[in-house]
């Protein structure tokens, strides 16, 4: 089981083999057994079957290749709309605009999605998370007719792998684990060593080999503004309104 | 594998059996292979060993019983601080205050945590997510000396199960799955049926049986304000500052 988790790598090219509805639903059902904060189950999945919609989604999320070849082109949504319906049956309203409600929905969706990934990979399928749906969240919301209090959090492609990326070496456990108190004094030494590990990996991997470590890639990537419209978008969908 | 996922239920009482550092690190290492947005790996785990700190954490998160008996009392943190160190090695700064950066860190942390849960449960351990650390996030941050750009997202207890809760029936797949477009017209019928399923479950379960369904529990729970300080707290830690 740990070997299955440790073998995860994104799949960006799939074989032309379908996944049956039965199998897909079985994976979803298993995934739904992830924990959910107070059992609110605040997530939805949109499966994009229509080829025109799929092509638009591929273009909007800037992940054409994956979405075109995947058996299951999916969008995972943080969803408080179903809960609105649930409580309206009792003449009540939820506080969907509260930051805490947003946090709950995002975490719920992510736990569910990762359980889905483990389920899918255990059956030999490959997956790729598509953060790129957040490149055009408003247009994608229109495309999928997402109402208020539902947002496309990330996409995912699923299928039978044609090519699998190599597994990237993760940060050493001591970088992410702290005992009793958070200790940032250790980072510079650990990260410098990790750069060597990543340099070796990037140099020797078969595809897209390059000359870089980890911290330099992060520096180049994270110091530029990204998706600066995100707060406006979330608020336009009724989230984070307690500002 | 799907059977393992489907058997998940929270464990709130543990046997007095330790988990070795070796095993714990092995679980963490496997869990780190969850996907990470642009490989930023924006999470940390604080393990609380010190009994005084553990008791305080238990009290602050209002989960005394679990935290007292668990072999591993953990706090999972969304963490952009390590990335600050990484990019500072190259004379740069990250945009930690951007809503998109916050989203990335929260999702990264949740994917990692759920992978950790699957790893732990595959080894026969039980777990319980503790959303209750968000009851007193400021005091818990002080207790664990979390710097800016690190927040306690949720806690977790891990150990050898003494008692396991029963598995709750999840929403039917058709409630969470949409085809091409989001369809909320189906909810009222599906949720009414699901209420009957949950009523039967709550009536017949061995512990804490009660007379309720799902929508009424949600209505009672979600219509009251909760953790209304959350946005202020997050901003005080340097997140969501693009408002």
Describe it for me?
The structure is a homodimer of 243-residue chains. Chain A has 2 domains: 2-166, NADH Oxidase (3-Layer(aba) Sandwich); 167-224, no CATH class. Chain A is built from 11 helices and 7 strands. The first copy, chain A, has helices at residues 2-6, 21-31, 51-60, 64-69, 81-88, 99-122, 137-143, 173-176, 187-204, 215-222, 230-236; strands at residues 11-14, 43-47, 72-79, 126-130, 150-159, 161-164, 177-179. Chain A has a 4-stranded antiparallel beta sheet, sandwiched between helices. A two-stranded antiparallel sheet of chain A has the order 1-6. Strand 7 of chain A pairs parallel with strand 2 of chain B. Chains A, B: Its EC number is 1.5.1.38. Chains A, B: Belongs to the flavin oxidoreductase frp family. Chains A, B: InterPro entries: Flavin_OxRdtase_Frp, Nitroreductase, Nitroreductase-like.
């Amino acid at each position: 089981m740990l070997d299955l988790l440790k073998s995860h790598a994104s799949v960006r090219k799939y074989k032309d083999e379908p996944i049956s509805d039965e199998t897909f639903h079985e994976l979803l059902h298993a995934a739904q057994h992830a924990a959910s904060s107070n059992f609110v189950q605040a997530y939805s999945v949109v499966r994009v079957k229509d080829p025109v919609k799929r092509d638009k989604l591929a273009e909007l999320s800037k992940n054409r290749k994956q979405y075109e070849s995947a058996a299951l082109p999916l969008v995972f949504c943080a969803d408080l709309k179903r809960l609105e319906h649930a409580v309206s049956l009792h003449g009540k309203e939820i506080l969907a605009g509260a930051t805490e409600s947003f946090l709950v929905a995002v975490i719920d969706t992510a736990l569910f999605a990762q359980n889905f990934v483990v389920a899918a990979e255990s059956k030999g399928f490959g997956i790729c998370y598509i953060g790129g749906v957040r490149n055009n969240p408003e247009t994608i919301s229109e495309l999928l007719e997402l109402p208020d209090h539902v947002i496309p959090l990330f996409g995912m492609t699923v299928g039978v792998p044609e090519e699998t990326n190599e597994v990237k070496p993760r940060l050493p456990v001591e970088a992410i684990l702290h005992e009793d108190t958070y200790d940032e004094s250790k980072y510079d030494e650990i990260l410098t060593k990790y750069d060597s590990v990543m340099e070796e990996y990037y140099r020797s991997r078969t595809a897209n080999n390059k000359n870089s470590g980890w911290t330099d890639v992060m520096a180049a990537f994270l110091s530029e503004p990204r998706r600066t419209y995100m707060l406006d978008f979330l608020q336009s969908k009724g989230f984070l309104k307690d500002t």
